[in-house]
Design goal:
By secondary structure, this protein is an alpha+beta fold. It is about 25% helix and about 25% strand. The chain is built from six helices and 13 strands. The strands form three sheets. Strands 1, 4, 7, 8, 9, 10, 11 and 13 form an eight-stranded antiparallel β-sheet that branches. Strand 2 and strand 3 form a beta hairpin. The protein is globular.
């Protein structure tokens, strides 16, 4: 599997909700961008408790979903931006059903691995609220598993728009990201599924703990 990186996006912490800061708004970068263990350089996360870190170093939200959201929200200009959903990596023709926990990809000179589905939060609805009636977006993402996913960085390197995102190793083939999102974040799992995830070393520490809590 090989896809073209259409944009690589970073953000800086800015006022987002009153006095609260966020780097949710990501903008495309020109030229090569460093890919470090904690993410792109430079790229910021204002809330380091819930965002960033090695298990959430890079976020990819499928560009294919932008067309879905145009049907839901209207043809708003924000959906023309590759980083509209806080995504670092913009790729077409690749969705949650096609990738798996633990899949490894070569991106430019870096080696990256899928660590978890992205759990949507209120910032998505807030980002879109100035452009449309965004109420219910998070619920719809959870319902339909249009969540995107995170990568950890196994080998640091650099990449730029136009580089290939190429899968070089399959992870857990029975755990595509759509299924993982439905089980972990929408609560649609069985005890056996939560036990499987709780023991899965490639899954991020936070999500393994979530799976263990579901078992209790």
């Amino acid at each position: 599997m090989k896809r073209t990186l259409e944009a690589i996006c970073t953000g800086t912490a800015r006022p987002f909700n009153g006095a609260e800061l966020s780097a949710f708004a990501k903008r495309p970068r020109e030229g090569k961008v460093q890919i470090l263990k904690d993410g792109l350089a430079p790229d910021e996360q204002a809330d380091r408790k819930h965002h960033g870190g090695p298990d959430m170093a890079l976020h990819l939200y499928p560009l294919a979903h932008h067309d879905f959201w145009r049907g839901e929200l209207g043809d708003i200009a924000l959906l023309d931006e590759p980083g509209a959903f806080g995504s670092n990596l913009a790729v077409s023709d690749l969705t949650e059903a096609e990738v798996h926990l633990g899949d490894r990809f070569r991106l430019g000179s870096a080696l990256i691995e899928i660590s978890q589905p992205r759990q949507p939060c209120w910032k998505i609805e807030h980002r879109f609220s100035d452009h449309c009636d965004s109420k219910g977006m998070v619920a719809k993402i959870l319902q339909m598993a249009r969540c995107g996913w995170y990568f950890r960085v196994l080998e640091m390197g650099e990449a730029e728009a136009g580089d290939a995102l190429e899968r070089i190793e399959l992870g857990h083939e029975n755990w595509d990201i759509a299924r993982a999102s439905s089980v972990l974040h929408a609560g649609k799992g069985s005890p056996e599924e939560y036990a499987d995830l709780a023991a899965m070393e490639v899954l991020s520490v936070r999500e393994r703990e979530r799976a263990r809590s579901r078992l209790k």
